[in-house]
Design brief:
Largest sheet of chain B: none
Radius of gyration of chain B: 24 Å
Oligomer: heterodimer
Family (chain B): Belongs to the sigma-70 factor family. ECF subfamily.
GO molecular function, one term (chain B): DNA binding
Distance between the termini of chain A: 12 Å
Organism (chain B): Micromonospora costi
Largest interface: A-B, 9 and 13 residues
CATH architecture of chain A: 2-Layer Sandwich
Keywords (chain B): Sigma factor, Transcription, Transcription regulation
Number of helices of chain A: 2
Helix content of chain B: 55-70%
Shape of chain A: globular
CATH topology of chain A: Alpha-Beta Plaits
Shape of chain B: elongated
Number of helices of chain B: 21
Strand order of the largest sheet of chain A: 2-5-1-6
Number of strands of chain A: 6
Protein name (chain B): Sigma-70 family RNA polymerase sigma factor
Largest sheet of chain A: 4 strands, antiparallel
CATH class of chain A: Alpha Beta
Amino acid sequence: MKYMLLIYSGSAEAPDPCTFEDWVAYDKEATEAGIVVSGHSLADLTTATTVRVDATGERAVTDGPFAETREVLGGYYVIDVPNLDVALDWAARCPGSRGNGAVEVRPVAEF
Amino acid sequence: MTDERAAGTHGSVEAVFREERGRLLAALVHRFGDLDLAEDVASEAIEAALRHWPADGVPARPGAWLLTTARRRAVDRLRRDQAYAARLALLAAEAERAGPAAPADTDGGLPDERLRLFFTCAHPALPAADRGALTLRYLAGLTTPEVARAYLVPTATMAQRLVRAKKKIREARIPFRVPDPHELPGRLPGVLQAVYSIFTEGYAASSGPHLQRLDLAEEAIRLARILRRLLPAEREVAGLLGLMLLVHARRDARTGPGGELVLLDAQDRTRWDRDMIAEGQALVLTALTGGPPGPYGVQAAIAALHDEAADEASTDWPQVVALYDVLLVLSPSPVVALNRAAAVAMRDGPEAGLALLDDLAGEPQLRGHHPYPAARADLLRRLGRRAEAAVAYREALDLAGTEPEREHLRRRLAAVEADTA
């Protein structure tokens, strides 16, 4: 069963309690456990661009993220594990869940 | 609820097999990994039993009969629906990956897998408000209309909540498993809370014409007894069962002949259930021996002190306050602080209690919580500050949920107003 771990960082002002080494260690652990399907960290929110296409096919491109949110999506993993409990364990171990951060766990839809 | 349950044939099927139903369902969920399928075939097996047993006699191992019948139905169904079967095969394979099954006790021919189901129903990924409902539906074996009545919501609303919760269990794949020993301290409180929420809903119904709904309190006790058998080494389970028994022992004295609320200080203690108190006391001992106490054990010990006292005046209030001090450390909350303040008022006088209550003013958790203004009102009344007491009684009246509680507050209000006049 695949789950996406959406890693949100808290407000930009709050200090990030995790070091780069924490992330490297987590990534290594998850990769060695053989559960990682894919994962990336995203570039700074100031680089985000949003695209909308209206009913006439007109494209609207705007600077910034789709919605003003206090929490910023900073990266993701897709992992393949047996059930939600295991997914929640990996989410809890993720450095992104600490401090003001949060990890949202979403099952990947199966069709 | 018993009368209502006996009303229809289907109702009586449920009543006869309620104990078996939980076990059967849990065994089927464990076997097939799917709550919907398990529910359907469990009901079919029970209905088959009701058709066959009166004519053919009850089989030697009724549990095994039910399980075999239900399994056969499930296999038939899976044969008809290959896509479904493929999905379940995948589930089974992944369940294997997740770890071996716990050794099952096979009392009566039915393995007892209920502990898994307890943990699934009270899973932290489910809405807290639905965990008690799921536990009532799948472990206590109540029907959906019965669960709806328990929470005083329309059947359609409850059905929708259960469907939504089941969908999350299925689609997010919340597992049917007992957490590992290292996870247990984090997960057991959720299960205990689900059971206790059923009890508190029964003991002090949050709204409605009746103060107590004893059937619900008894369901909660029954569930805690099952948990106690399944987790004999967990002292907080003993604490929870003890707490509920020690409180439930006072049920007959808690309402007067007209259904009116009778508070602890005015209860006829000869009407308390002595056997139930004795059982509760023994559980308190278990809960508080052999390690640091947990919040249910401490609450049970407080309930035991009340149950042991001949009257309010001879209650060991210093000990009650000391236990509330422990409880405040274990599970700090303004509600616990409120109860502690009431105990301090008994130990040191209403003035001391009132000072503590006033310190709690403005606590968000106490806003809209009628016991807070009601406790203030009682202490103000005892201090002879009748006008202020009347204001506080009115405030409590605006918030109180059940009619007997409101009636009690109206009587108190009338009394202080008469004295003022």
